[in-house]
Amino acid sequence: MNWRIYSLALKALPLVLMVSIINSCGEEKELVSSETRELTTLDMRHILINATSRDRFEGKAADSDGKGKEIASGYLYVTPEGWIEKAPTMFRTVNLVLPSGGEAYVSEVGGNILDNVNRWYKQFGQEAINQSQLESLETIKLLGEKAYFVEATGSYNPGMGKEALKGVTLYGAIKEKSGSLVTVKFIAPEKSAQDELANFKTFCELLEKK
C-alpha cells in the first residue's frame, strides 16, 4: 500500500465527515421547515394557529360530517334555511342567528328542569309553574326523545345588565340527557317567530349528540 496516499486519506476524512454532517443538518432543517409550513396553512375552519384571544374563547365554527349535518362540540344538526352558524361560545355549544335578527342556541346546563323552565318564564315576567303544570306542557322531540316545549311572548329581560326587549317570543326545549340538561333556546321578534316555529321543532328533532 502507498502509505503517502493512506496518510492523505486519513487527513481528509475529518473534512469529509464534517461536510456530511453539515449536509445532513441542512436536510433535516429543510424537513422541519417544510413541516412547519404545512402546519401553519389555514385549512378552512380546521386549524387556526394564529388565533386571537377571542377565537380561543369562542371556539371554532362547526365542521360537516359529509352527510348534510354540521358538527359542533359533539352535536350533529341540520341548519334550517336562512339560519346562520356562528362560532360556539362558553355557554352555547351550537350557536345560530336568524334572518329576523333572532337567535337559537344549544346549551348544557345544571339544575333541574322545573327551575330552568321557571327561569325562562321569569325573563318574560311570568309566574312560576309547579311540577304538575310542567307535566302538562306540550312535548316535542329533542335528541330523539321527549322534551318539554316552552313558549312565552312579551317583554324579554335577558339579564346580565342587558336592556329588556319588547315584542319578543321564546321557544324553548329542555330534557335531561346523560346526567345533564340539554336546552335549545330560540329568541326572536314576535312578528317573525311564528314563521320559524316549524324550523325550531325540526331542528330539535334532528339534533343528535355523538
Brief overview:
With 210 residues, this protein is of the alpha+beta class. Helices cover 36% and strands 30% of the residues.
Question: Explain this structure to me?
Answer:
The chain folds into 2 domains: 1-41; 53-209, Jelly Rolls (Sandwich). The N and C termini lie far apart (76 Å). It is built from 5 helices and 11 strands. The chain is of the alpha+beta class. Strand 9 and strand 10 (180-189) form a beta hairpin. The longest helix is centred in the N-terminal third of the chain and has 37 residues, at 3-39. The strands form 2 sheets. Strands 4-5-6-10-9-8-7 form a 7-stranded antiparallel beta sheet. A 4-stranded antiparallel beta sheet has the order 1-2-3-11. Helices cover 36% and strands 30% of the residues.
Descriptive keywords:
210 residues, alpha+beta, Jelly Rolls, 2 domains, 7-stranded antiparallel β-sheet, 4-stranded antiparallel β-sheet, 11 strands, 36% helix, disordered N terminus
Shape: globular
Percent helix, as a range, is 25-40%
Q: The CATH topology of the largest domain, please?
A: Jelly Rolls
CATH class label of the largest domain: Mainly Beta
Give the ordered list of helices and strands: HHEEEEEEHHEEEEHE
Instruction: Indicate the radius of gyration in whole angstroms.
Output: 29 Å
Strand order of the largest sheet: 4-5-6-10-9-8-7
CATH architecture type of the largest domain: Sandwich
Our count of helices gives 5
Tally of distinct domains: 2
Q: How many strands?
A: 11
Strand content: 25-35%
Q: What is the arithmetic mean of pLDDT?
A: 76
Low-pLDDT stretches: 1-60
Q: Give the N-terminus to C-terminus distance in angstroms.
A: 76 Å
User: What is the structural class?
Assistant: alpha+beta
The biggest beta sheet, please? 7 strands, antiparallel
